[in-house]
Amino acid sequence: MNEPAASTPSGAGRAQPLMSIGEVLAQLRVDFPDVTISKLRFLEAEGLVEPQRTAAGYRKYGWDDVARLRFVLTAQRDQYLPLRVIREQLAQWDASDEPPERSRPALVAVGPDGEVPGRAAAESARVRWDRSELLARSGLDSSTLGELERLGLLVSDPPGWYDDDALIIARAVAGLAAYGFQPRHLRGYRTAADREVGLFAQLVAPLARQSDPAARARAAETARELVSLSQQLHAALVRVGLRSTLGR
After folding, report:
1. pTM for this structure?
2. What is the pLDDT along the chain (248 residues), one digit of tens a residue?
3. The domain 127-181: what is its CATH number?
4. Which of 57, 100, 186, 242 could pair with 71 as two cysteines, CB 3.0-4.6 Å apart?
5. Which contacts qualify for 215-224: CB closer than 8 Å, 24 or more apart?
6. Do domains 12-123 and 127-181 have the same CATH topology?
7. Hey, where are the domains in the chain?
């Protein structure tokens, strides 16, 4: 539920108009359609943004706060940075008194629950492809895709739709195929991933099962951090393992 729009105080407030959490959500959803009020509250709880509060406890955001949120969301979406790294970078800006560059996105309408009209349909169209589209976008041939599905390396959602992760997998396999790898050579990736899922689920599931939206947001952030750390560990181990082969 959106909080009431905050009134603009005198003095500095006129130089930097203050916004409610619903207004900030509308600003951010232009570029980050998946962001929610729970997500903004979670980032505040993690100390990444510190909005002002009215006497009644309502949050009031300035453009600097919006700039910080944009930086955090961009770092997560485009660079998969864990929160600890993002927090360190923001601390550096704070220490140097050089906050992330402020920008003012176009205003959009926001519904009573924070939804942006027409956004759901756009999201759905953007992240779903049928079999022929997946093949065209990834460069795989139909027989290889069938083999990937048989081995459990790639799955579709009924009645045959593929999402972003399916496309990432398909493109990675197509790239490896150029070096002579076949789907059967990649079964170890599925086994290793399943082991990690089981391990990480033990940490994430208790939070995800709670009814509190903040707890579910924390579960999503924890999963994101674990995936990022796992990717870093895997890449480093492979690099170390190849050093002797490369003579380094």
Report:
1. 0.52
2. 444 444 444 344 345 578 888 889 888 988 888 888 888 888 888 888 999 988 888 889 998 899 899 988 888 887 777 788 888 888 887 777 655 554 332 233 434 443 444 444 434 444 678 899 999 988 999 999 999 999 999 988 888 889 888 888 999 899 999 899 998 899 899 999 999 999 999 888 888 888 877 777 778 878 888 888 888 888 888 889 988 888 76
3. 1.10.1660.10
4. 100
5. 216/38, 217/36, 217/38, 217/39, 217/41, 217/42, 218/42, 221/42, 221/46, 221/83, 224/76, 224/80, 224/82
6. yes
7. 12-123, 127-181, 187-248
Structure tokens at 47: 């100390």
